[in-house]
Amino acid sequence: MRILHTADWHLGDRLGRIDRTDDLRKAVERVADYCKQENVDVLLVAGDLFSELARPDGLRETIRHWQSVFSPFLESGGTILTLTGNHDNENFCQTLVSAMSLASPTVGKPGETVPPGRLYLAADPTFIRLEDRMGGFPVQFVLMPYPTPHRFLRGETGLKYGSPEEKNALLVAAWADALREIRAHPKYDLKAPSVLGAHVHVHGSTIGPSLFRITVEEDVVVEGAELPNQFDYVALGHIHKPQWLGAEHMRYCGSIERLDLGEQADQKGVILVDIGPDGRNGEPVVLPLHATPIYEVVVLDPAEDIPRLRAEYPSANNDLVNLQIRYTAGKDQLEDVLRDLDKIFPRWYARDWKETGALGPTLVSPATGGGKGFGETVHEYLAQELIQHDEAERDAILKIADGLLKEMEN
Ligand SMILES: [Mn+2]
């Protein structure tokens, strides 16, 4: 059974002002190409399918995109196994799960063999079996969503915790309990091939410069030393930096695209592993994915730096760039500087500028600098923000803002 392991799709994500939908869709299409090219039987997506920034209409379009991209794979008998991560909206995913179980109410009881050719989503700890298409032997799949209180802490005790640390300790224990319960299930065969898919931070893994939109203190970190002995393959999601830990067959595949500056050095990919009736055949293989360059550019002297950047980055059209700009009033025209940089780096996702004089002690007298009223401050801020817009448009917006400010003052 050929399994393709991926995770952390974050579909519908944004970076600053840039919508990442197209980048992420391309990556998903590449994953679908690999499914075909490598004769994959099971595509296992280990959580964080959707971005928390995706809106309902974006989610609808995402599902429609899956339909067009994965229909050939599913129709040819492929199966997609997914589970929820910490960024997946619980309401939306639970609705999907409920709708799917209404469509096939008898499918997916613990330990049962499920039919291939469709997508499964686990929003709770789940244990199912799939039969190999060619060999006919069953492979057990244990799917563990990210441990949230809603999914893992049931009943009275679940609601009682005095501190974040206590909540995390309960979740760590509940995650291990849920896994132990599944492995103790009467239908679980300790000798049969088994694969774990989990969205969780396993103790001892290497995080990049930061975790993705979650602090280390907030995160639930579980013990995983036994997992490589218990499973023929452990497919992890959550940490975006690709790596194996403890053993070559316990892996974070990483996200399918670089999602923030912290991932600028990551090589992205998906993992192919082959499971036979007696366990793993050979070691897992990494298949590369294209990743959009993300970097920071510091401009200290626009007159000198901009021509140099133009020569140095002739094809930065698609790069995601964080611009840090210093300019000198009277020497540089901010509007021109921003326009020139916009031409070199049209997909800048964030930018910040400072007047060189503003860096040292202020020379502006309090009467002109500190004494601005609320209305004046808002007006100046807006004028600055709209500096690259069409002049008539800018004036029209400022006029509306001034009108509103006047109304407020009255
Ligand atoms: Mn993620």
CATH architecture assignment of the largest domain: 4-Layer Sandwich
How are the strands of the biggest sheet laid out side by side? 6-5-4-1-15-16
CATH topology of the largest domain: Purple Acid Phosphatase, chain A, domain 2
- Strand-residue fraction? 15-25%
Mean pLDDT metric: 92
CATH class of the largest domain: Alpha Beta
Radius of gyration from CA coordinates: 26 Å
Q: DSSP helix count? A: 12
**Shape from CA axes?**
elongated
For the record, what is the CATH homologous superfamily label of the largest domain?
Metallo-dependent phosphatases
Number of domains: 2
Describe this structure in words.
It holds the Pfam family Metallophos. It comes from Gemmata massiliana. This protein has 410 residues and is an alpha/beta fold. It has two domains: 287 residues, 4-Layer Sandwich (Purple Acid Phosphatase, chain A, domain 2); 116 residues. Helix content is 34%, strand content 24%. It has twelve helices and 19 strands. The strands form five sheets. It has a six-stranded mixed beta sheet. A six-stranded mixed beta sheet has the order 7-8-9-12-14-13. Helix 1 packs parallel to helix 2, helix 8 packs parallel to helix 9 and helix 11 packs antiparallel against helix 12. The N and C termini lie far apart (73 Å). The structure holds manganese (II) ion (MN). The site of manganese (II) ion has 8 residues, from loops. The site of manganese (II) ion (MN) has 8 residues, from loops.
Quick summary:
The chain is of the alpha/beta class and 410 residues long. It has 12 helices and 19 strands. The chain has helices at residues 21-37, 56-75, 90-103, 149-152, 155-158, 164-183, 227-230, 302-312, 334-344, 366-369, 374-385, 391-409, and strands at 2-6, 14-15, 18-19, 42-45, 79-83, 119-122, 126-131, 138-144, 194-199, 201-202, 221-222, 233-237, 243-245, 247-252, 269-276, 279-288, 294-299, 320-327, 348-355.
